[in-house]
Write a structure and sequence with these properties.
By secondary structure, this protein is of the alpha/beta class. 32% of the residues lie in helices and 22% in strands. The chain has three domains: 108 residues, Methylthiotransferase, N-terminal domain (Rossmann fold); 237 residues, pyruvate-formate lyase- activating enzyme (Alpha-Beta Horseshoe); 62 residues, Nucleic acid-binding proteins (OB fold (Dihydrolipoamide Acetyltransferase, E2P)). Helix 6 packs parallel to helix 7 and helix 11 packs parallel to helix 12. The relative contact order is 0.08. This is Ribosomal protein uS12 methylthiotransferase RimO. InterPro entries: Elp3/MiaA/NifB-like_rSAM, Methylthiotransferase, Methylthiotransferase_CS, Methylthiotransferase_N, Methylthiotransferase_N_sf, NA-bd_OB-fold, Ribosomal_uS12_MeSTrfase_RimO, rSAM.
Length: 444
């Protein structure tokens, strides 16, 4: 063990919700005097925060645990795959401890057992917003844990439990601290952002001398007071989503909705245990855009779900064509251990899944290309993420980090831009994913 501060290595896998869990564990480690190190060799013990949602994520998590064991030897496992300790023990019997998601106390207990803390209050100083794994200028803001839905392809409730909402004043205070720490953009995440507060009957809490309901609209109204970019993710298409669109039109939160529609065939949606009123969904999208013309909608879909016929898939393509969604991700269905969809009949052959996925993405690429072309000549507000040679790489209001497109600012370095800067960029070109532009380019 190190002679100075005990040193912990950390591997964080999975979704933004898991990333927030990692940030909380890391913050507690630093509060207790542990030093976080970037290599196995420098660490006295390694914590691996796992993902277990789909088979590829399970494989990645088991591989990461194995690598940490081989390189370091002392490994503590937490996260979603921790809900299946027998699977981890079968592959890696020598791990020190296994705990599930959000079980921060068990992680710290295991760290204490392997590596007693040496706290020095005079040097172990932390910003009041804790440690972050994202760049300084944006942060994920997790508003709840768990989910009340039982989608047939998903095992999240078995891993993270039913919905538990954080009190709205607690969330707003955390956002306020992040803003003081230099954050310019908040990415609101949960398993189901639309359901926020239903478990606490939308209880009112006070923040800055004003009462806010613990519900999505109240949260957005409060966050708008901070003057940051606020971006909503994982929004389930409940009717009260309509209440948020005027806030977007007024510039209070970003005109951006991440709604995982998953499919567009009412029959397949029923098998998925998802909302199935596709015609009403299209009407709502049109109504949202009438209120907020700049609205960006991103979504995810599953193709090749058990029982999906050619007709079902054509309905999905038709929806995609009519909805003209801005950003879309798609996946070929694969069985997830523990999901009820595994028992459904009429599995789609793998080659058919891949052919449908290719057709789906080809259509979406055409839609995305055409929509981005319409932005050529416009001026977009861009948040700079990085400088790469002469380029500044940033994102517009329509782009979430890591999952959407980028804005490449050709003269960004010459303009003196830095990560975290906002700038106005005239768009000069585009492709199917990204925009290209110049700072301060005057219109002819």
């Amino acid at each position: 063990m190190s002679a100075s501060h005990p040193k912990v290595g950390f591997v964080s896998l999975g979704c933004p919700k898991a990333l927030v869990d990692s940030e909380r564990i890391l913050t507690q480690l630093r509060v207790e005097g542990y030093e976080i190190v970037p290599s196995y060799d420098a660490a006295d013990v390694v914590v691996v925060n796992t993902c277990g949602f789909i088979d590829s994520a399970v494989t990645e998590s088991l591989d990461a645990i194995g690598e940490a064991l081989a390189e370091n030897g002392k490994v503590i496992v937490t996260g979603c795959l921790g809900k299946k300790p027998e699977q981890i023990r079968a592959a890696h019997p020598d791990v020190l401890s296994i705990s599930g998601p959000q079980d921060y106390a068990s992680v710290m207990t295991a760290v204490h057992a392997a590596l007693p803390p040496r706290h020095d209050p005079f040097v172990d100083l932390l910003p009041d917003y804790g440690l972050k794994l994202t760049p300084k200028h944006y942060a994920y803001l997790k508003i709840s844990e768990g989910c009340n839905h039982r989608c047939s392809f998903c095992i999240i409730p078995s891993m993270r439990g039913d919905l538990v909402s954080r009190p709205v004043d607690e969330v707003l205070r955390e956002a306020e601290k992040l803003a003081r720490g230099g954050v310019k953009e908040l990415l609101v995440v949960s398993q189901d952002t639309s359901a926020y507060g239903v478990d606490v009957k939308y209880a009112e809490r006070e923040w800055r001398g004003k009462a806010y309901q613990t519900r999505m609209k109240g949260l957005c109204e409060g966050l708008s007071e901070l003057g940051l970019w606020t971006r909503l993710h994982y929004v389930y298409p409940y009717p009260h989503v309509d209440d948020i669109i005027p806030l977007m039109a007024e510039g209070k939160i970003l005109p951006y909705l991440d709604i995982p529609f998953q499919h567009a065939s009412p029959r397949i949606l029923k098998l998925m245990k998802r909302p199935g009123a596709v015609d009403k969904t299209l009407e709502r999208i049109q109504r949202w855009r009438a209120i907020c013309p700049d609205l960006t909608i991103r979504s995810t879909f599953i193709v090749g779900f058990p029982g999906e016929t050619d007709e079902d898939f054509e309905q999905l393509l038709s929806f995609l064509d009519q909805a003209e969604l801005d950003r879309v991700g798609a996946f070929a269905y694969s069985p997830v251990d523990g999901a009820t969809a595994n028992a459904l009949p009429d599995a789609v052959p793998e080659e058919v899944k891949q052919e449908r996925l290719a057709r789906f993405m080809e259509l979406q690429a055409q839609i995305s290309t055409e929509k981005l072309e319409r932005k050529i000549g416009s001026v977009q507000t861009v948040l700079v993420d990085a400088i790469d040679g002469e380029l500044a790489i940033g994102r517009s209001k329509a782009d979430a980090p890591e999952i959407d497109g980028l804005v490449q600012i050709q003269d960004g370095a010459a303009a003196g831009l830095k990560p975290g800067d906002f700038c106005e960029v005239r768009i000069m070109g585009s492709d199917e994913h990204d925009l290209f532009g110049l700072v301060g380019e005057e219109e002819d």
